[in-house]
Amino acid sequence: MVNLIGTYECKVDAKGRLMVPSALKKQLAPMLQEGFVLKRAVFQSCLELYPMEEWDKLMKKMNGLNRFKKKNNDFIRRFTAGVKSVEVDANGRLLIPKDLVGFAGIGKEIVLNSAINIIEIWDKEQYEKAIYESTDDFAELAEEVMGNDDLDGIS
């Protein structure tokens, strides 16, 4: 199971390449050979970078959907729209395809945010805005999501 840690600020060059920070590259080292999948996020205007192992787990779940239900087909189509297979090159750079740069509104400065088993790629300004907007209700959200009284709750 992948548990990535950290938030990193980087720059993207004119071709859409970013240098993966060394601390993050160390965490991703076991996954570099297999490559990654880059896709549009569902709920935010950012990108999600999946290690191939995590992507395969997700695709196994999605493959269990009944394709004779229109809703399922529509979901699969939208979820996988713009999906790209990407690699970190020998120089430690990752190329973000132009269509995905456009979707996420990525400028020169970006934030790579670890989200447990994936990396979110944000335009820095949009990331800071999303974090700021979520601070008001974060305590309520934390209580609702994590504050249940079941036995495997987190203390």
Task: Write a concise keyword list for the protein shown above.
155 residues, alpha+beta, 6-stranded antiparallel sheet, two-stranded antiparallel sheet, 37% helix, 24% strand, globular
Concise overview:
This protein has six helices and eight strands, in the order E-E-H-E-E-H-H-E-E-H-E-E-H-H. With 155 residues, the chain is an alpha+beta fold.
What structural class do the secondary elements suggest? alpha+beta
Provide mean pLDDT, rounded.
91
What would you call the shape? globular
Question: Can you count the helices?
Answer: 6
- Count the E strands: 8
Uncertain ranges: none
Radius of gyration: 17 Å
N-to-C order of helices and strands: EEHEEHHEEHEEHH
Largest sheet geometry? 6 strands, antiparallel
Strand residues, percent: 15-25%
Secondary structure: helix percent: 25-40%
Distance between the termini: 22 Å
- Biggest sheet: strand arrangement: 1-7-8-4-3-5
